[in-house]
């Protein structure tokens, strides 16, 4: 296998970092060398967050080079579009169909881009993105905090190892009292992708 | 055992296993987690020091008793600590002393970008530079050994990308026992009066030479043979990027970048045709090689500023003619300029009210349709969460340069003869760090400014560490609080008000009184940081039948107040309700309803 690169993007507070930590644990459990790095804004206060994760027999740079992302998991639509240069033809995309407008938009200084604008780069690159209503799905499951695990479940079928390994990593990271609900969210996400 | 660790976690574990006895730090991104992880070990004495100079002094004192000690900080923290740092170099150590400094290339979370390696030349201390978490772990043990063997403090330099990326680490099961503290009187070494210092300094210079000789065989400097056409000299994370771009090349990977292994470098340079120096930030290695008469390529192609990545090195190599131009297989994508998403003060932040007050009194923001006015009041700012008050819509900060500078700069402006009222804004943690020096100076020099100390009971920006004013130690223990009011009064301040952070009327009146008095004034604005506040209450709601879209509430910049088409609404997941209630105080239509009990 060639190095596998995963980009997870979203807004501070959405659970991006926990999701990428769990993916790392899973890749490690699957026997790979793993590197990951998170980039946060000045603090995590509602700014844009991106996490790079790579695994292979051996990995040197923790940052994914341009065009070499195999899987992008976007927790928010606008963030899905922001890191276009990392995507390539081979990229699989899982995008949460949800908009969190930055402050400049509420203030009327800027406009939230349309779906077509957001997807323009994906279209030019020939990437077919899965747009999924994850917020709705976790609301139905009864807890908005499980968004990240639901998205991991959905993305699991794009990974080069079994989804059970990922479920195992979730069990290790989450406190027991949150486990049951989150495993349900994981299973629901996984089922939705099939 | 193999573990996935961030660079900072690996540094902490490495120090623990090396028998560390004491660690002192001031939080600062990207270095903060080193201390947070050390504080989990009950057998290490850990402390958040009030600033970085104090941290180095504390660690140096511990080293003088023969135990292994560490001080950690971010790059700009070393500027604060420079005096203590130079002093430690002069006396040398007893127990191993490691000073960890984390640089921030690309300025992810700092006020500037600077290359700590320059301090090595100045202080004659060796610098170790790990390039991943494994090395962070291993180099920590090595740093302590070197420190004791050569009688010198050692700089362990990290960067954001090393500190904040995680990779696998093979850790050792054994922990070295920590030494027992014991003081041996040794005035010739530890009392730097000129007669003693004159003897000591040549020893420091000799020490530098000896370490240079050692560097020739230091296992941290690695020759990685490859193609003889291209030789790469690199260090730190830049090595990892270069390895990605030139998998076939020969490498000289320098784990110690000061002093340099001159013979090793010469040998390497003779074994390859072209040498490409790949280093982040300044041309420290390149300049040294040039002084040695070795011709290299480097900063002509690699930028001197900003964080490197494989793509930048790739592009540089193509420009330098080392790599062939590849026909770009990726389509060039033209994406529109998407709106940025800068960090914001949290919903329910105790700083929002005072910034809103400053913004309105200072004519900083205007309602939609109203003309922009010339700002009034000069607002001298400082470093912390509250620096985010500089962003629109609040726009209530005019300067921000370094930790603790706000009060002194404000005094300077006033003394320069500025006609407008000058207001200094500083957080509680920053005040304890070095702002207090400015306050003492303001009293002494009879300044007429207004000083706002925004006391949110924590060091919020770096992740809610304790500080002397909130009485929570590094290990979470409750300790004596330094009383801010008494401290301020003790410095000689007569005009002191303590105002509640969420009461706009009180803030407005208090601030107006302070400004109009024309005297030196301190206002402590007190309200707990929303992130650590335990009180919870039901979110507020907007009655859309009453809301006439005057947009006054939007001027608070609260991220919970959002727009959906023509309507405003409050995000119930973000709003902290009656803990805050600022928006309902602002709304002229009384359209924002509070929902008291939770
Ligand atoms: S972390 Fe605390 S102090 Fe910082 S912006 Fe949020 S509420 Fe305000
Ligand atoms: S009460 Fe108003 S200003 Fe305070 S957090 Fe809620 S929406 Fe924001």
Automatic annotation (TrEMBL), chain A:
Pfam short name (any one): POR
Transmembrane segments: none
Keyword Oxidoreductase carried by entry: yes
InterPro entries: IorB_Oxidoreductase (IPR052198), Pyrv/ketoisovalerate_OxRed_cat (IPR019752), Pyrv_flavodox_OxRed_cen (IPR002869)
Domain Pyruvate/ketoisovalerate oxidoreductase catalytic positions: 12-191
Superkingdom to which the source organism belongs: Bacteria
Keywords noted in UniProt: Oxidoreductase
GO molecular function, one term: oxidoreductase activity, acting on the aldehyde or oxo group of donors
PANTHER family: INDOLEPYRUVATE OXIDOREDUCTASE SUBUNIT IORB
Protein name: Indolepyruvate ferredoxin oxidoreductase, beta subunit
UniProtKB/TrEMBL annotation, chain B:
Gene3D superfamilies: 3.30.70.20, 3.40.50.970
Cofactor: [4Fe-4S] cluster
Record organism: Dehalococcoides mccartyi (strain ATCC BAA-2266 / KCTC 15142 / 195) (Dehalococcoides ethenogenes (strain 195))
EC numbers, comma separated: 1.2.7.8
Residues given in the record as [4Fe-4S] cluster 2 binding sites: 558, 575, 580, 583
Taxonomic lineage: Bacteria, Bacillati, Chloroflexota, Dehalococcoidia, Dehalococcoidales
Gene Ontology molecular functions: 4 iron, 4 sulfur cluster binding; indolepyruvate ferredoxin oxidoreductase activity; metal ion binding; thiamine pyrophosphate binding
Listed CDD domains: TPP_IOR_alpha, TPP_PYR_PFOR_IOR-alpha_like
Keywords carried by this UniProt record: 4Fe-4S, Electron transport, Iron, Iron-sulfur, Metal-binding, Oxidoreductase, Transport
Record-annotated 4Fe-4S ferredoxin-type domain positions: 566-597
Biological role stated in the UniProt entry: Catalyzes the ferredoxin-dependent oxidative decarboxylation of arylpyruvates.
Catalytic activity entry: indole-3-pyruvate + 2 oxidized [2Fe-2S]-[ferredoxin] + CoA = (indol-3-yl)acetyl-CoA + 2 reduced [2Fe-2S]-[ferredoxin] + CO2 + H(+)
Gene name of the record: iorA
PROSITE patterns according to UniProt: 4FE4S_FER_2
UniProt KW DNA repair keyword: no
PANTHER family registered for this protein in UniProt: 2-HYDROXYACYL-COA LYASE, INDOLEPYRUVATE FERREDOXIN OXIDOREDUCTASE ALPHA SUBUNIT
Sites where the protein binds [4Fe-4S] cluster 1: 547, 550, 553, 587
Top enzyme class: oxidoreductase
Name of the protein: Indolepyruvate oxidoreductase subunit IorA
């Amino acid at each position: 296998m060639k190095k596998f690169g995963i980009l997870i993007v979203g807004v501070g507070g959405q659970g991006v970092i926990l999701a990428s930590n769990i993916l790392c644990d899973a890749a490690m459990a699957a026997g790979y060398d793993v590197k990951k790095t998170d980039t946060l804004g000045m603090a995590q206060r509602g700014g844009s967050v991106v996490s790079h994760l790579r695994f292979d027999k051996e990995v040197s740079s923790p940052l994914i080079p341009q065009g070499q992302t195999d899987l992008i998991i976007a927790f928010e639509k606008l963030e899905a579009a922001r890191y276009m240069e990392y995507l390539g033809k081979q990229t699989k995309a899982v995008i949460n169909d949800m908009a969190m407008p930055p402050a400049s938009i509420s203030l009327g200084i800027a406009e939230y881009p349309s779906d077509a604008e957001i997807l323009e780069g994906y279209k030019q690159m020939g990437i077919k993105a899965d747009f999924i209503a994850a917020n709705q799905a976790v609301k139905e499951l009864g807890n908005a905090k499980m968004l990240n695990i639901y998205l991991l479940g959905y993305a699991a079928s794009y990974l080069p190892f079994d989804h059970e390994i990922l479920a195992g990593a979730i069990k290790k990271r989450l406190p027991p009292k949150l486990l049951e609900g989150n495993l349900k969210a994981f299973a629901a996400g996984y089922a939705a992708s099939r | 055992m193999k573990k996935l660790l961030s660079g900072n976690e690996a540094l902490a574990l490495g120090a623990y296993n090396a028998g560390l006895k004491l660690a002192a730090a001031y939080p600062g991104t990207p270095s903060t987690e080193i201390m947070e992880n050390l504080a989990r070990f009950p057998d290490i004495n850990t402390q958040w020091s009030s600033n970085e100079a104090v941290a180095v002094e504390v660690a140096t004192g511990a080293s003088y008793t023969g135990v292994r000690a560490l001080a950690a900080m971010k790059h700009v923290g070393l500027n604060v600590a420079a005096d203590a740092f130079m002093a430690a170099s002069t006396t040398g150590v007893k127990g191993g002393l490691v000073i960890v400094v984390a640089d921030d290339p690309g300025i992810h979370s700092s006020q500037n970008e600077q290359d700590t390696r320059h301090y090595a030349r100045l202080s004659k201390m060796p610098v170790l530079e790990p390039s991943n978490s494994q090395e962070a772990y291993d180099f920590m043990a090595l740093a302590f050994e070197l420190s004791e063997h050569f009688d010198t403090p050692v700089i362990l330099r990290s960067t954001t990308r090393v500190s904040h990326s995680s990779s696998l680490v093979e850790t050792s099961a054994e922990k070295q026992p920590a030494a027992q503290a014991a003081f041996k009187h040794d005035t010739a070494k530890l009392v730097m009066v000129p007669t003693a210092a004159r003897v000591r300094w040549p020893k420091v210079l000799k020490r530098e030479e000896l370490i240079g000789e050692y560097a020739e065989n230091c296992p941290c400097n690695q020759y990685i043979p490859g193609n003889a056409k291209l030789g790469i000299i690199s260090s730190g994370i830049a090595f990892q990027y270069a390895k990605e771009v030139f998998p076939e090349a020969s490498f000289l990977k320098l784990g110690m970048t000061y002093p340099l292994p001159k013979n090793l470098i010469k040998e390497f340079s003779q074994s390859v045709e072209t040498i490409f120096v790949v280093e982040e930030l300044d041309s420290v290695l390149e300049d040294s090689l040039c002084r040695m008469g070795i011709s290299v390529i480097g900063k002509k192609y690699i930028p001197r500023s900003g964080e490197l990545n494989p793509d930048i090195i790739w592009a540089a190599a193509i420009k330098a003619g080392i790599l062939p131009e590849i026909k770009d297989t990726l389509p060039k994508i033209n994406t529109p300029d998407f709106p940025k998403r800068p960090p914001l003060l949290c919903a329910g932040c105790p700083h929002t009210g005072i910034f809103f007050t400053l913004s309105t009194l200072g004519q900083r923001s205007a309602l939609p349709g109203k003309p922009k006015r010339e700002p009034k009041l000069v607002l001298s700012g400082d470093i912390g969460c509250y620096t985010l008050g500089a962003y629109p819509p609040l726009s209530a900060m005019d300067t921000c340069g370094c930790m603790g500078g706000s009060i002194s700069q404000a005094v300077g402006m006033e003394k320069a003869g500025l006609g407008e009222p000058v207001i200094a804004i500083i957080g509680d943690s920053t005040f304890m760090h070095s702002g207090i020096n400015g306050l003492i100076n303001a009293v002494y020099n009879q300044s007429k400014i207004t000083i706002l100390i925004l006391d949110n009971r924590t060091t919020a920006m770096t992740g809610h560490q304790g500080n002397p004013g909130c009485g929570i130690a590094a290990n979470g223990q409750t300790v004596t609080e330094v009383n801010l009011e008494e401290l301020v009064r003790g410095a000689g301040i007569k005009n002191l008000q303590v105002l509640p952070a969420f009461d706009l009327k009180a803030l407005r009146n208090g601030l107006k009184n302070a400004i109009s008095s024309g005297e030196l004034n301190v206002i402590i604005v007190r309200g707990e940081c929303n992130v650590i506040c335990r009180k919870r209450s039901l979110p507020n709601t907007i009655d859309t039948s009453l809301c006439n879209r005057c947009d006054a509430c939007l001027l608070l910049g609260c991220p919970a107040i959002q727009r959906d088409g023509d309507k405003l609404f409050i995000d119930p997941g973000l709003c902290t309700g009656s803990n805050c209630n600022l928006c309902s105080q602002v709304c002229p239509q009384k359209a924002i309803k509070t929902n008291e009990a939770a």
